Amino acid sequence: MAAAKFKRVLLKLSGEALMGKQDFGICPKMLGRLSDELVEAKDLGVELAIVVGGGNFFRGAAASAGEGMDRVSADHMGMLATLINSLALQDALERRGLATRVLSALEIPQVAEPFLRRRALRHLEKGRAIILAAGTGNPYFTTDSAAALRAMEVKAEILIKGTKVDGIYSDDPEKNPDARLIKKVGYLEVLERGLRVMDSTAISLCMDNKMPIMVFNILTPGNLKKIMLGEDVGSIVSE
């Protein structure tokens, strides 16, 4: 069996990725396919930490802007949406035989362990995949920022972000057919050009701590395994 390039990674998975072709919620077929790929990556010996968004159910910032909802309340609702997705992913992974723990930044002991850094590291060392729910537990921070923070806390070698496109583009490829795929880019260029990678807080945090970010198409079967094996997939943000 080929050796994995990475020992420990953090995967940022959007809530939209779980929708499949639906307009809302979780598509069982897509959830199953993503879980199969995660198990395949784990079988290579990679230690997996996963941050899942909640956009397939609720977006705090959008509700605050569109409906005039209190931003703190809206963001807490978004955190709960990530917990729903995390529990669904845990169930799918454990039905495939992968030991998994959900660690939540909001304390809901009936369904998840509280996030404690030392406990998270211990789970990884024990061979369990960890799913990190509820963002940072604080309003005004996105799950991108949570992914960057957790990547540093669990000592991941790389933060990989699964999206609906093949990597980082010069413009929105769904709106501009002339948008160009950028294979390698620096943190400062991402910030200066406003490239749609992650929010500026997440990019700055990764830049300050020299955490590389890989952006790839999670909807293409086999991409996750290719990344673990070091193949040229997606785009990379680094120094």
List the helices and strands and how they pair.
Blueprint: E1 8-13, H1 28-43, E2 47-52, H2 60-67, H3 71-94, E3 100-104, E4 113-114, H4 117-125, E5 129-133, H5 143-153, E6 158-163, E7 168-169, E8 181-182, E9 184-186, H6 187-193, H7 200-208, E10 213-217, H8 223-228, E11 235-238
Parallel strand pairs: 1-2, 1-6, 2-5, 3-4, 3-5, 6-10, 9-11
Antiparallel strand pairs: 7-8, 10-11
Helix pairs in contact: 1-3, 2-3, 5-7, 6-7
> How far do the termini sit from each other?
32 Å
Largest sheet: spatial strand order? 4-3-5-2-1-6-10-11-9
Give the mean pLDDT: 94
CATH superfamily: Acetylglutamate kinase-like
Describe this structure in words.
Helix content is 38%, strand content 19%. It is of the alpha/beta class. It has a single domain, classed as Acetylglutamate kinase-like (Carbamate kinase). The chain has a nine-stranded mixed beta sheet, with helices on both faces. A two-stranded antiparallel sheet has the order 7-8. Helix 1 crosses helix 3 and helix 5 packs parallel to helix 7 (200-208). The longest helix is centred in the middle third of the chain and has 24 residues, at 71-94. It starts with 7 loop residues before the first strand and ends with a strand. The relative contact order is 0.16. The model has no long low-confidence stretch (mean pLDDT 94).
